[in-house]
């Protein structure tokens, strides 16, 4: 089972190659602006440097969202293009679930894990998982205020992480049960590939032609400024 995984949900562009769930290669670019333009190069490096060709792949996996509208479009379009060209199946993994896998098993069972991605202003995309990575609250868009997660924080420690956690820290950082780990946890194709291996074994393939990213909310573009003459 050889799976190529892509993650372009944020400005971090990530590509990984897994054999039977074990990582063979992982390439990541961390830039201020989207590095998705390097996606093709990273794919070639991951596959060729591992001693394989694209034709050797058994499936293509991609993070389906939530995340950056533009980033998700690029990642999904690239994954679908590879699937059509190589006649390979498509696997899609929730970005927040893949982020949570990076911390799964690092905290005691009494803790909850809350991955967060920035969604403009005081809004975040988030979900709640238990310490082993099982979903407790589905993915949603939340506006953060001083009452956010109040009931959950009264019951147990909650680990907030991801690039949306900073705005939450400013509001909820005083709560004794609110935990904000360092360093920053980014989405990664490495854990997308680990979850994709499970999905492959369970035959959870997507319809390549009809698949669309999980945007969670409509794209909001910026209005062009009036030209002052």
UniProtKB/TrEMBL annotation:
The keyword Signal does not apply. It comes from Larkinella bovis. It is an enzyme of class 2 (transferase). InterPro entries: ATPase_NBD, Gcp-like_dom, T6A_TsaB. CDD domains: ASKHA_NBD_TsaB. GO terms for molecular function: tRNA N(6)-L-threonylcarbamoyladenine synthase activity. Residues 34-194 form the Gcp-like domain. Its EC number is 2.3.1.234. Gene3D superfamilies: 3.30.420.40. Keywords: Acyltransferase, Transferase. This is tRNA (Adenosine(37)-N6)-threonylcarbamoyltransferase complex dimerization subunit type 1 TsaB. The gene is tsaB. Signal peptide: none annotated. PANTHER family: TRNA N6-ADENOSINE THREONYLCARBAMOYLTRANSFERASE, TRNA THREONYLCARBAMOYLADENOSINE BIOSYNTHESIS PROTEIN TSAB. The keyword Transferase applies.
């Amino acid at each position: 089972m050889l799976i190529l995984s892509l993650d372009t949900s944020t400005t971090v562009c990530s590509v990984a190659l897994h054999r039977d769930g074990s990582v063979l290669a992982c390439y990541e670019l961390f830039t201020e602006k989207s590095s998705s333009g390097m996606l093709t190069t990273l794919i070639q490096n991951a596959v060729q440097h591992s001693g394989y060709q694209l034709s050797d792949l058994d499936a293509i996996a991609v993070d389906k969202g939530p995340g950056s509208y533009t980033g998700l479009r690029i990642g999904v379009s690239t994954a679908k293009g590879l699937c059509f060209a190589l006649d390979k199946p498509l696997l899609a993994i929730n970005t927040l679930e893949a982020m949570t896998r990076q911390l799964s098993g690092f905290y005691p069972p009494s803790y909850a894990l809350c991955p967060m991605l920035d969604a403009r202003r005081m809004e975040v995309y988030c979900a709640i998982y238990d310490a082993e990575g099982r979903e407790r609250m589905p993915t949603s868009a939340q506006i953060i205020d001083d009452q956010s997660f109040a009931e959950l924080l009264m019951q147990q420690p909650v680990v907030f992480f991801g690039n949306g956690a900073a705005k939450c820290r400013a509001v909820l950082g005083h709560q004794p049960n609110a935990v904000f780990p360092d360093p920053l946890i980014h989405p990664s194709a490495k854990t997308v590939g680990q979850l994709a291996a499970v999905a492959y074994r369970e035959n959870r393939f997507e319809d390549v032609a009809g698949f669309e990213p999980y945007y969670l909310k409509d794209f909001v573009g910026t209005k062009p400024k009036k030209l002052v003459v």
